Amino acid sequence: MTPTIDDRRRLTVLSAIDLDHPELRKRLDEIAERAASRLGRPVGLVSMVLDTAQFFAGSYGLEGWLAELRGTPIEWSFCVNAVMSGEPYVVPDAAADLVQSANPLVTADGVRTYAGVPIVVDGVVLGAHCVLGFSPSEFGPEDLDELRRGAEEIAEVFDAYRTDERPASPGPDQQGLGDVPDLPVEV
Question: Is the pTM of this model over 0.70?
Answer without folding.
Answer: yes
